[in-house]
Amino acid sequence: MTSSFGNVCAIIGAQWGDEGKGKVVDIVAEHYDVIARACGGANAGHTIVIDSVQHIFHLLPSGCFHEGKPIILGAGMVLHLPTLLEEIEEMKKAGFDVLPRLHISSEAHILFEYHKKLDGVFEEARAKKKGKGIGTTMRGIGPAYQDKAARTGIRMESLDADLTSELKERAESIKEQFGLDIDINVELKNLEDARNVLKGCVTDTVSLIHEYLEGGKSILIEGAQGVLLDLDHGSYPYVTSSSTTISGALQALGLPPKSLESCIGIAKAYCTRVGEGEFPAEASEADGNRIRERGVEYGATTGRPRRCGWLSVPDLLKVVRLNGYTHWNITKLDVLDEEDQIPVMMSDGYQNLPGWKASTRGLTSFDELPENAKKYIQFIEEQTGVPVAFIGTGPGREEMIVKS
Ligand code: GDP
Ligand code: IMO
Ligand code: MG
Prior knowledge:
Shape: globular
Number of strands: 18
Bound molecules: guanosine-5'-diphosphate, 6-O-phosphoryl inosine monophosphate, magnesium ion
Structural class: alpha/beta
Oligomer: single chain
């Protein structure tokens, strides 16, 4: 498979997140030597289903079920350490010790409890002022990146340092500005717990990833969130606070653009969004409810019902431009199995494509697809000029058509 996708391949969500990145990362990771997550934090929820058991990753890359493969958490990440320790522990319970192969960028930022509290305060303030917030995941993401941009953040390189006086100052300033009480003993305890577990993992991941490359190793990049949530190019201000494009991922990992050999765009066969913000192709309530139930469209991080809608060709064209996608993975095709017709948003209104009214669940070969399902896939290829390499036909690891 590396021959089709080259030595450095990225998997980048093409919509508003939750496209099914986790599943394809897990599948493609088998063929790569190193798996690297670039940006974001525990706002991500990446699901993989192996032997009917569901695993949800928030910080660890979804490829970490592949024993022995090094995993990297890049400089663009904001790390809530108790969540990371929990995930490491869960992996241990599942029989996988990830610590010896986990490499965390010393440049990644630590996300503290106070960032989560501030997320709540800022959301409340927006709701008061505008009648609604952004609908964040409340994982402290905006405030952590705010600190990073303001150059007041604390990075993983300081994990070993005594941060008592710095945290005291931070707590005082937060109390003064927002009237919030921060328990720095909780923060210090979290740091100590993390230090004990992660001591050997924090490193210069930029040098490391380049050494892997120079040694002929292949790298799989796992993007988080989706391009329409990008801080610069998304539907601002209803976006996340990181760069979710391929450029953001390369920047976060310290990889030059020329190292990239392929970029797989992940898009649902329809579209969903969690949180507030524009969604021009949002379905009617009845259609949305039907798709939500069939697609089990509830947030992997927050459990919130996802808003459901249809594919938007103008949005796909925009994200193809932003990322230079070389391939698509169209996910969750099976969710549309019972639709009579499938609206697709075009630049001049909707076009209705005929449904196929037959089960595609679990199919693994393109030839087996009903004729109208093939046409739907071909329509996406024609409209976007990007070939479809994978088609999701169910949540399970093996429920995937590899088309080439
Ligand atoms: P991610 O954040 O992009 O990794 O996606 P999420 O894990 O948040 O959401 C995707 C959901 O769809 C998860 O529950 C997956 O198990 C599920 N899923 C992924 N691919 C498919 C598919 O092809 N068909 C169906 N029915 N479910 C899928
Ligand atoms: P994965 O990696 C879907 C959305 C939130 C909210 C906005 C800002 O699983 O695809 P934030 O907490 O980041 O400040 O929230 O971004 N959001 C996501 N939506 N999937 C995600 O990640 C998301 N990460 C953030 O719902 O609208
Ligand atoms: Mg998700």
